[in-house]
Amino acid sequence: MKNSIILLCLILLVSCKETSKEAQVPQHQDATEQKTISAEPAKKKPLSPHTSAMAMVGDAHIHFDYSSPGVRNRIVFGGLLPYDAVWQAGAHMATWMETNKDLTIDGKVLKAGKYGFFVIPNQKEWTIIFNTNWNQHGKDEYDKKDDVLRFKVIPKISEEIQEHLEYKITKVTDTSGAISLSWEKAIVGFPFDVK
Fold first, then answer.
1. The pLDDT of residue 77
2. Upper half-sphere CA count for residue 38 (Cβ side, 13 Å)
3. CA nearest 125: which of 84, 180, 96?
4. Which residues pair with 137 in a beta bridge?
5. How far out from the chain centre does Cα 97 lie?
6. Which InterPro entries would you find in this protein's record (predicted)?
7. In 3-state terms, what secondary structure has residue 16?
8. Residue 15 — very low, low, confident or very high, per pLDDT cuts 50/70/90?
9. Which of 68, 65, 79 minimizes the C-alpha distance to 121?
10. Which of 27, 160, 170, 177 has its CB 3.0 to 4.6 Å from that of 57, i.e. a possible disulfide?
11. Distance CA 90, CA 183 (A)
12. How far is it, in rounded angstroms, from Cα 98 to Cα 125?
């Protein structure tokens, strides 16, 4: 009889522990809790967001496609980007420009098409380059022999810092416009005419 009582007490004790464990495990969660648990962490904003600049000048549709790096408290020209070296004029993939009409730039004709856009920065003047190899990572495959147009421009220096690289295409008349890029304190631009 004594053994039976002890056995019964043990069964009750084990049974109480199992019930206690079950009580600790939630039987269901509301929809809000489930979403919180399964939600992915918020994605970081890219440091060099992909963007574009487009404009119509007369019948010409001009489109620049680039990734826009930030200054982030760095010395860019003459620091991060050495002077007198080819730069893809953006981050990651080479910047490209497309036009559906022939353009006259620096007295030369740039045929309708898609081009890699490169620059060689310098303190006194920049070299602007349009190259047939528009689809490349950075300047990894850049080759001067693929250049179709090269010319020099004098940069302007701004008092204000342009945090992210920005391209602008400005319509001046129905047959002319200007292209500019600005980053850090440098502003570089040049005019064009639609043929």
1. 97
2. 7
3. 84
4. 93
5. 15
6. DUF2911 (IPR021314)
7. helix
8. low
9. 79
10. 177
11. 10
12. 24
Residue owning tokens 């549709």: 61
- Residue identified by tokens 């890029």 is 181
Identity of residue 115:
Y
Nearest to 167 by CA among 66, 75, 44: 66
Residue 63: name the closest of 23, 103, 109, 15 by CA: 103
Measured CA to CA, the distance from residue 151 to residue 173 in angstroms comes to: 23
Amino acid (1-letter code) at residue 3: N
Within 10 angstroms of residue 37's Cβ, the number of other Cβ atoms is 8
Burial 150-169 (b: 16+ CB within 10 A, else e): eeeeebeeeeeebebbebeb
Structure tokens at 142: 């850049």
44 class by beta-carbon count within 10 Å (0-12 exposed, 13-18 middle, 19+ buried): exposed
Write out the two tokens for 27: 């039987």
pLDDT in tens, 61-90: 999 999 999 999 999 999 999 999 999 999
Tens digits of residue pLDDT in 133-187: 999 999 999 999 999 999 999 999 999 999 999 999 999 999 999 999 999 999 9
The SS3 of residue 17 is: helix
Domain boundaries, the chain: 2-38, 50-194
Q: Which residues contact 1 (CB under 8 A, 6 or more apart)?
A: none
